[in-house]
Amino acid sequence: MESNEHSPRDPLPTEPDTADEAGAVAAVDAAQVARAPDDAMAANLEGKPIVTAVRGFGPLYQRRYQVRLPGLRESPQEVMIIWKQHFPAFQPPDNRFYPSPKGVKPGEVVFVDSSLVEAPGMRAMTEMASGVMITDVDDLSFTVMTPKGFPVAGSNTFSVLTERGAVVAQVLGLERTSDPLYEFGYRYLGGEAKQDATWVYVLRSLAAHFGMTADVTIEVTCLDRAIQWRNAANIRHNAVIGTVVHRITAPLRGTFGGT
After folding, report:
1. Sign of torsion over alpha carbons 76, 89, 244, 28
2. Strand ranges, E, within 164-234
3. pTM beyond cutoff 0.90
4. Residue 159, beta-bridge partner list
5. Which residues does 179 contact at the CB level (< 8 Å), separation at least 6?
6. Fold of 19-255
7. Which of 74, 87, 174, 200 could join 78 via S-S bond, C-beta 3.0 to 4.6 A?
């Protein structure tokens, strides 16, 4: 794999190379990886269909995380520039985000390597190497969508707005767990709590960048409690299983010239 020039926590470029790099990406059926960083795994992302929450398995949730930044001198647009630029660095230490060298631009992918639960000694069994695709970008927000096999099917929109005179940074997710194994992990192994902790950490890190300590509010709404059993077969694309298999078979791929 060809390496990009960014570590998981390097600032990203923010200046567009062309006038059309802001906006929305055209309809995409599958993730395409032009090149991947040395430490990232493309096996669970390359060629995987990009899916909405309709293609998920578990109940449908809207998850909203907000942090208020009262008295902030920077404008919402300036806050969003910083958020895009430092998106990997604001992640928790056990989350490794590998962005494209182009930064937060429509159609680019962000590789993600994370453990899905916080239980000691469980990382090797719950590590997930996959990624997300950036689909919409403007000066106040950007949206990412998930490929098949990711823990959730759906989207996250990161935005900065003004409410009652204060700048507010927000993460808004619309998602279902992707398959029965992920649903079990979210319900019984702390996966849901880990997800909440991740976005709370990100928003607190963003606030800390501006020298502020702020509480993060969480609002979770179940929009549909139904389990979509017709999508149970999504488990064959499960990125945790794919990651474990990829790690175990690495010596064989090296012996026989695989990647």
Report:
1. positive
2. 166-177, 216-224
3. no
4. 141, 170
5. 57, 231, 232, 233, 234, 235, 237, 238
6. Alpha-D-Glucose-1,6-Bisphosphate; Chain A, domain 4 (3.30.530)
7. 74
- Dihedral-angle region of residue 107 (phi above 0 means left; psi in -120 to 50 means alpha; beta otherwise): left
Q: What span, in angstroms and rounded, lies between the C-alpha atoms of 132 and 134?
A: 7
Residue 212 identity (one-letter amino acid): M
Round to whole Å and give the CA distance between 28 and 11.
Answer: 27
Q: Which of 66, 12, 9, 11 is nearest to 203 (CA)?
A: 66
Mean pLDDT of successive 10-residue segments in the chain (259 residues)? 46 43 62 62 79 97 98 97 96 89 89 76 71 95 96 97 96 98 93 95 98 96 98 96 79 58
The pLDDT value given to residue 39: 65
- The domain segmentation of the chain, as residue ranges, is 19-255
Beta-carbon contacts of residue 230 (< 8 Å; ≥ 6 apart): none
183-to-135, 158, 200 alpha-carbon distances in Å: 25, 24, 21
pLDDT of amino acid 150: 95
